[in-house]
Design brief:
Number of domains: 2
Order of helices and strands: HHHHH
Number of strands: 0
Radius of gyration: 21 Å
Strand content: under 5%
Number of helices: 5
Helix content: 55-70%
Length: about 160
């Protein structure tokens, strides 16, 4: 694997780790399982693509096709993370609320009704814009540090 891949994966892992203490500071609840979940601050999607794009810009230069591909791909990923995926999460919140409402209606009925309740849908799928920006900033930082730490020294 090349250094760019390592740096991007490191950035993704670091973003996932940071979600735990950030959530704790905001909510006073320690949730280590956030490491394995999508959504939240910072966006690991944004961190990964931003660190790779930054690394490519520093290593190969901005006028290269490598940088152009990474930048466009990264912008699409970040747009999707806060756009479509976020809307899916919002819709999931509504569906989960609807399930609770239906359950309340069924409890008030005199007719016996038995139904297996489906598993509650995951609500934290996408990112708020500030989570995407936070991930992007983390990615630029990790990409820059990664580039300078792995740069071949010329004598």
């Amino acid at each position: 694997m090349n250094k760019g891949v390592y740096i991007a994966l490191l950035s993704i892992g670091l973003a996932q780790v940071l979600k735990i203490p950030i959530y704790f500071v905001k909510n006073k609840v320690w949730k280590p399982e956030l490491f394995f979940q999508t959504g939240g601050m910072p966006s690991s999607h944004s961190a990964g693509v931003s660190s790779l794009t930054t690394y490519i810009a520093l290593k190969r230069g901005m006028p290269t096709i490598d940088f152009a591909l990474s930048l466009i791909y990264g912008l699409i990923v970040m747009y999707d993370a806060q756009g479509i995926r976020r809307q899916t999460g919002e819709l999931t919140l509504k569906v989960n609320d609807l399930g609770e409402l239906v359950e309340k209606i069924h409890k008030d009925e005199s007719v016996k009704f038995e139904e297996k309740s489906p598993k509650k849908l995951k609500e934290m799928l996408g990112h708020k814009p500030e989570e995407v920006i936070g991930g992007a900033l983390l990615g630029v930082l990790v990409g820059t540090i990664g580039y300078f730490l792995t740069k071949n020294k010329k004598h």
